[in-house]
Amino acid sequence: MQQLVLFLTRYRNNLLLLALLLLAVVRHSLKNQVSEHWLNSFGTQTSAKFSKLTNHWKSYWKLDEINEELARENASLRAALKHSNAPEFTAMSSYDFIPARVVDYSYRKKNNYILINEGKKLGIHPGMGVINGNGWIGTVIESTPNYAYVLPFIHTKGDIGARINGKGLGQLSWSGKTGFAILEDIEREYQPAPGDSVYSFTRLEVAPPVLTGIVTSATQSEEDLSWDAEVDLISDFTSLNWIYVCRFKDKTEVDTLRSIIE
Fold first, then answer.
1. Where do the domains of the chain lie?
2. Angle between the 12-29 and 2-10 helix axes, to the nearest 10 degrees?
3. I need a surface site. Which of 92, 133, 208, 258 has the fewest CB within 10 A?
4. Would you give the end-to-end CA distance of the chain in angstroms?
């Protein structure tokens, strides 16, 4: 059944053209006004119903794909919580994860954007981190009652702190190429190696550390002998459907203590 629907969706324009040509031939053979009016009405209704039907089934199968992705992401998060010794999920219990659907986004620009369909009504505010089932996505910049603007990692201002497990900290920046980033200023004693896992490292109230990418190569600076590593990003920014906004449960308490310190 799915193959039939996909066939109709793929070739609907050709099938519609053939149907209209057939109607034109029949119309030409029937010259009276009643027949012509009936054929015009029939053609219009048939065209509309056919387009509606194919669009409906196309949306239906797309919905299945989205639901499958959401289910996989939920399963991934649940599995991570059960294995809390994994370094990227040691602090997961300190956060609530608010699911939201991506309603608009870009990935081909120098400064990209993401819009999601949840906002202040669900407690989403600027400064909150955003992840998906694969890894780091970005940070909430603005929110309205029902929507929020997320500044994604693939932006000139999307840099974050990051670390290679057991090998020190660095600054992770988008390279400008789809799917790639650069981890800079790693201390010279922590030489990155291909295959090393890179985790996000942000302020406590932003998000927990999450797997962000895998090191593919590394070079050493001749000046200070620090390391720079090229990183293959885990998250696919060209295909975004569902994300999770990270809400730190103890933010008010931490903010109170910080205000005293300052």
1. 2-80, 99-262
2. 70
3. 258
4. 65
